[in-house]
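Figure S7 source data.
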Amino acid sequence: MKPALSNLINVCQTRTENLFTRYLKELETPAPKLQEAMAYAVMNGGKRIRPLLVYATGMALGAEMEHLDSAASAVELMHSYSLIHDDLPSMDNADTRRGKPSCHKVYGEALAILAGDALQTLAFQIIIAQSDQISTSQRLALLEILSNASGIMGMAGGQALDISADDNTIEKVLTLYRLKTGALLSASVKLGMVSANLADKSIQAQLEKFAAALGLAFQLQDDLLDAESATGKPQGLDIANNKYTYATLAGADQTRKKIQELNSEAMEAITVLGSKAMILQELAEYLLVRKQ
Ligand code: IPE
Ligand code: IPE
Ligand code: MG
Ligand code: MG
Ligand code: MG
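Tokens for the predicted IPE complex:
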């Protein structure tokens, strides 16, 4: 990995962990067991790709890290909630996550569901509360992006298609991937743009293209990893659950080819940013070779 990227990853991960300690561990709450379940699901070694995308995008556009903190934390909390529910017996029935027992294995299904619910609302609360650095109209825009990407037009909609998919075609699978995974990854880039107050519409459009291609490639890579690697999640679960994935429908070689094409599309989309695109391009390259 290039030194600039590895440095940014370290800085963002430390920053994210510190923010989560503040939001989740130092919280005065009447429901300590729920708080414990939330912290367990969030502070357990995730890669923090979504916060990284918020910071990398925002900083490429000249924003200070302080101005990106709330959006970066909020999108990761939303993602963590989606993983808790994704692992439930009624969904993927996954016993491990990030190398540890899944949230419901430790706290039971009922508390795990509630931990997901409460993480989702905490994400919105964090954006609403960051009044000192971000204007009201910016905060509204952030809330709109995050709620769209998480709900029926985004992650939850995609998850619904994912669990009901019994006659899948490659086109249908790609659509559901854009929703279940692409939406929150694209939102991360959009949150970075809004936090940085980016006004240039053509740069916005190019960054959105970048994020859409990257988001789709990310889920394709996740499919390959499910089949081929030890990731801290149960290996081979997609096959065990009779899931139609791009990889099962098109084969591993075609999946790798598609990932490469999407990656080139992502790289190409942000050449307009010139040298400012470098860190995002390095990030996209790193996601290609990730093993987790
Ligand atoms: C896993 O996401 C779920 C998908 C949307 C593919 P990540 O691979 O980002 O998981 P963590 O957060 O690093 O554990
Ligand atoms: C993405 O799909 C999950 C979410 C949108 C939460 P997967 O079910 O493939 O994710 P993993 O492999 O369990 O992390
Ligand atoms: Mg799933
Ligand atoms: Mg899953
Ligand atoms: Mg998977």
